[in-house]
Amino acid sequence: MPMTKKYGSCNLCEAVCGLEFTVENNAVTSIRGDKQDPLSRGHICPKALSLIDLHEDPDRLVKPVRRTRDGWQEIEWDLAYDLVVDGLVSTRKQYGANAVGVYQGNPSVHSLGSMTHGIPFTSMLRTRNRYSATSLDQLPHQLVNHLLYGHQLALPIPDIDRTDFFLVLGGNPMASNGSMMTVPDFANRVRALQSRGGTLAVVDPRRTETADVADVHHFIRPGTDALLLLSLINVVIASGRTRVADYVDGVDEVTRLVQDFTPSAVADVVGISAEEIVTLGTRFASAEAAVAYGRMGVSTQRFGTVCQWAIQVLNILTGNLDRVGGALLSDPAIDLIDRSIVGRGHFDKWRSRVRDLPEFAGEFPCSTLVDEMTTPGDGRIRAMAVLSGNPALSVPGGTKLDDAFAGLDFMVSFDFYINETSRHANVILPPTMSLERDHYDLVFQAFGVRNTAKFSPAVVAKKPGAKAEWEIYRDLAIRYQAALSDSRLDRVRRRLTPTSLTTEARLRLSPRRTVDLLLRSARKGLSVSTLSKSPHGTDLGPLRPGLPGKLHTRDKRVHLVHDVVVAELPALHDVMHHAAVTTGEELLMIGRRHLRSNNSWMHNAPRLTKGRPRHQLLAHPDDLASRGIDDGSVVSVTSAAGTVRIEVLASDRMMPGVVSMPHGFGHQRQGVELSVATTVAGPSANDVTDPQHVDAVSANAILNGVPVTISPT
Ligand SMILES: Nc1nc2c(c(=O)[nH]1)N[C@H]1C(S)=C(S)[C@@H](COP(=O)(O)OP(=O)(O)OC[C@H]3O[C@@H](n4cnc5c(=O)[nH]c(N)nc54)[C@H](O)[C@@H]3O)O[C@H]1N2
Ligand SMILES: Nc1nc2c(c(=O)[nH]1)N[C@H]1C(S)=C(S)[C@@H](COP(=O)(O)OP(=O)(O)OC[C@H]3O[C@@H](n4cnc5c(=O)[nH]c(N)nc54)[C@H](O)[C@@H]3O)O[C@H]1N2
Ligand code: SF4
Ligand SMILES: [Mo]
């Protein structure tokens, strides 16, 4: 059989690295980094190689399965669709549209078919009970983009390749390969920054892999970054080095709001001395081009929204927003904003039934999903559709959610694995995997530190009987609509409504055709066929300034001050004045990610799970000694929400008073059909995180800075 080389991109994380595949006999025999990819330049991580493991995994589902009393039973697609449509439609007819809940998990934004066809399908359900990984993650970014720049996806991207000073708070791109910033080959980009005389500064309660390559690293007490950031704004203003664009309003008010949060007032509680804060702020303000960037550690904490707001304010006041080497809005080949593919977002237009928490862009926060499933009354969730996700492990209070899934009238999962969540589904619909499907990264090319575009055709043919994700959502959506309109009047009405006609026509377009139409109508001279001539990707150049033109606020101005942020200041005053955030016995738990692990999945890929265990609770040796806990022993970790048992690993890379537990584990549940290696055999961190506590502005989950006690077992 001839051996061929094919090119594409990895869709496992946000870095979208270019890949070179060797293909023989419809099988991928090797995967390497594509040196000619204009963004990733040959970089890959070990996860890319596991695409072969995933493809060949015997645990993987290819055909739909139905849960029966005697276990899982493989069924034909037609029957599976009928069962799903029947379950969803009967729940809606009996209890109303809000009785069907939707959870859209992380991989849904990494799958083209899910973007083009999953979103129209879930919109058809017309439920307010929509949830997604957004509120476990980047909701504060989206809310702040919406407030400051008028659109949830108007995300300024750090111009890492041209900056002089890169300040990273609560992000670990050396392990995560970047997030809300598509930055493959981070290590070499940092080396280039340093060799041109620039600085990488990291603020993190753990000395991370990113801190290891940084020039400056400060430990910070978890959850106190908002105080640090307000004091940095203070330092910048006091230094007289502000450079504010004329489309920005509210600088005087910001000056007033931050005035109490001086370096010396916050130093004790954040755990960084006043001198160090002043030095950091002064260096930031005096760099020719600087950029502050914050990720999970500052997003998924009590003051997540204030943190993301303050990061933008810091960039804006120092003139680094829309500046080469600062933070810039990208110019993707397919602009999700300009093409109105994603709306600008709206906030607090309605609230959740049980806990009165605000929606954002039509979604409720995940931390209240279990309440909406278990609290009796009108509007209670009775059926769920889970798209590419595993909320039983990913959402705070996972065990309760697990039980709640078990109590549903009906559930469908779209997943190629029987995982801790999909095990409760009545039917699982498995899509093809990444090697078998076309890819164009609608989201992460738009978040790139450089503008690039690539269309990657499927590398191998799909397995017999398998269906692509878009085909599944298309078939289901069309059948669902038909079943819903089963009265004659409805059918006539449907025929006359142009929207349902266009929806159906759109659903019948393949993702490749959809991408082609979007490219062509963007009038940049691109199409699927022009992109296909450059299989390594097309370079569209560095990030470019474009404000105020690219603002989506109604008056094309940036208003710095927003009531929801101002309302948080009293709470921040309280934290500042009660320097002890924890009682003497308590420690603050944070999370971590590992290069060879991806959220709650890929734990059965042999290439990734060999080696040393990586699920342990990291703790500072002094914190173990003072509690009489031996390194390597099993401890109980207890929070207000629950207790887990886990091995402890002493590490002087932890800030004293802080422990770290990775998430995505907890696979030892009955009925899960994965063969999971011992390296990832830890408990679920979300049996400890607390769904009752959320970021008070956005209601995003708090996954970092959770007060816990640990004790020997
Ligand atoms: N404590 C704690 N909790 C966290 C986090 C944390 O840092 N700490 N991080 C949070 C964050 S940032 C995120 S994004 C979430 C992620 O959590 P989830 O949104 O639950 O996503 P995953 O864990 O990635 O779930 C992946 C599931 O999708 C399936 N899948 C993979 N690819 C595809 C595909 O192409 N199509 C379909 N249909 N299915 C697919 C996999 O088989 C797997 O079962 O977890 C959050 N939870
Ligand atoms: N290998 C791998 N890569 C991934 C993923 C994965 O699971 N594995 N997941 C992907 C996803 S879904 C996402 S969202 C991204 C996340 O990308 P990142 O945010 O870069 O990844 P994390 O490892 O969660 O980094 C969060 C950092 O915040 C620190 N931290 C915790 N609490 C605080 C705090 O209060 N203040 C400060 N300043 N820091 C704090 C933690 O120690 C940690 O180093 O990664 C993506 N990439
Ligand atoms: S860094 Fe992310 S995109 Fe690149 S190879 Fe690894 S998993 Fe794939
Ligand atoms: Mo995420």
Give an overview of the whole structure.
With about 725 residues, the protein is an alpha/beta fold. The protein folds into 3 domains: about 65-135 and about 345-440 and about 460-530, Rossmann fold; about 140-330 and about 555-565, Dimethylsulfoxide Reductase, domain 2, CATH 3.40.228; about 580-710, Beta Barrel (Barwin-like endoglucanases), CATH 2.40.40. Helix content is about 30%, strand content about 15%. It has 25 helices and 28 strands. The strands form 8 sheets. It has a 7-stranded mixed sheet, with helices on one face. Strands 23-27-24-26-25-28 form a 6-stranded mixed barrel. A 4-stranded parallel sheet has the order 11-10-9-13, sandwiched between helices. It binds ligand MGD (2 copies), iron/sulfur cluster and molybdenum atom (MO). Iron/sulfur cluster binds near residues 15, 17, 44 and 184. Keywords: Iron, Iron-sulfur, Metal-binding. Pfam families: Molybdop_Fe4S4, Molybdopterin, Molydop_binding.
Sum up the structure in keywords.
713 residues; alpha/beta; Rossmann fold; Dimethylsulfoxide Reductase, domain 2; Barwin-like endoglucanases; 3 domains; seven-stranded mixed beta sheet; six-stranded mixed beta barrel; globular; binds ligand MGD; binds iron/sulfur cluster; binds molybdenum atom
Which helices and strands appear, and what pairs or packs with what?
Layout: E1 3-9, E2 18-24, E3 27-33, H1 46-56, E4 65-68, E5 71-74, H2 77-95, E6 100-104, H3 112-124, E7 130-132, H4 139-149, E8 157-158, E9 165-169, H5 173-176, H6 186-195, E10 199-203, H7 209-213, E11 216-218, H8 225-238, E12 248-249, H9 251-258, H10 263-270, H11 274-286, E13 290-294, H12 296-299, H13 304-317, E14 327-328, E15 347-351, E16 358-360, H14 369-374, E17 383-387, H15 391-394, H16 398-406, E18 410-414, E19 427-429, E20 450-453, H17 469-484, H18 488-496, H19 498-507, H20 511-521, H21 528-532, E21 538-542, E22 558-559, H22 563-566, H23 569-577, E23 587-590, H24 606-609, E24 617-619, H25 621-626, E25 634-638, E26 643-650, E27 658-660, E28 706-712
Parallel strand pairs: 6-7, 6-17, 9-10, 9-13, 10-11, 12-22, 17-18, 18-19, 23-27, 24-26
Antiparallel strand pairs: 1-2, 2-3, 4-5, 4-19, 8-14, 15-16, 20-21, 23-28, 24-27, 25-26, 25-28
Helix pairs in contact: 2-17, 3-17, 4-13, 8-10, 8-11, 8-13, 10-11
Bound molecules: ligand MGD (2 copies), iron/sulfur cluster and molybdenum atom.
Residues 10, 12-13, 15-17, 44-45, 47-48, 177, 184 line the site of iron/sulfur cluster (SF4).
